[in-house]
Amino acid sequence: MGKKEVRGFLWLLTGWMLFIFFLMTPEVFFVNPGYLATKTFAVQYGVFGLINFVMFYIASFFITPRYFRPKKYLRFVWACIGMIFFFGVFKYFVGYLFGDIVLKQFRMLEKNEFSVAVHFFIVTIRNSGLCLLMGVAHRSFFDWIASEKKKRELETQKHAAEMAFLKMQVNPHFLFNALNNLFSLATIERSSKTADGIMKLSHMIRYMLYEKEDSNNRVSLQKEVDFLNSFIDLVKLRYDGGININFSIEGNITHQRIPALLLFPLLENACKHGILDDPLKPVNIELAITGTQLKFTVNNYINSYLKDKTGGIGLENVKKRLELMYPGKHSIDIENSGGQFFVTIKLPL
Question: What are the φ/ψ torsions at residue 347 (nearest 5 degrees)?
């Protein structure tokens, strides 16, 4: 037994003896004030208190962890019964060892020694059972606390793993589309634009790989917005006449923090399925900070020339991450009507 276990044992013993003392306080100070200075107190409190503690300790640290579990409940019951009778008999003989002190109160109630013995034996059995129940309750309570703590740790680990997986989904999806864009530029020999695109892409990859999240898996909203603008610049390289994306920001974004790459899939989805080269059908993006709430809206007209048979991961990715990061505290509204697609998310900051 190490020092930590010894300290734990001594603290538990101290707590038990204090608990017994306070149980005896009414008799010590009110019913029989002279009781504290008598042998009776020493025997009842010291000897029987320690015996009861041994019962409590065995029940809490040996019987309950070994047998209080499925398929072993019968053994648990027999172990409890055996312990109650063993310590009941043991305390019965200890009581007779100090008979002039312990049995005095029973002799005042009963007429003969047989009745005294029966009464005392019943009391010792009852007290032994109570000590055992307290030991079982003590162990069960702390096992429940440990189980809940482990459950929370597993949930946290699961949450972190799911978040990491969802974030990893965004990166290859984005890289696949970005590299396709750069390949298109290279094949039509726009060397300067290709170089600009590679530079933009390298900055974005650096952000995805090296931007550090805080303990709540958040990053700076300002840097997230910079990332969105870099992506818009990257998309512009594909169009000689420019693109029609309106990105408006309302409120202060300097000191706000959100999950990394949470907004990006919505922008990428709009650029992929929207109409970018028609000034009359622009992609509209609005980011608004109101008090402690963030509202992000993306609206685009749906093009008729791009049909992705495999489907995108963008919206499902965002939904899952919102459920993990803001359970019951967010909203996401999706509308597809009149050839237009609207997505609005609201979340607390």
Answer: -150, 155
pTM check: above 0.70:
no
What residue type is assigned to position 145 of the chain? I
Q: What's residue 309's pLDDT?
A: 45
**pLDDT tens, 8-28?**
767 777 776 767 666 655 554
Instruction: Report residues of the chain scoring pLDDT below 50.
Output: 28, 30-31, 35-37, 161, 165, 309-312
d(CA 126, CA 132): 10
Q: How far apart are CA 149 and CA 79, in angstroms?
A: 29
Do 102 and 51 form a contact (C-beta atoms < 8 A)?
Answer: no
C-alpha distance across the termini of the chain, in Å: 49
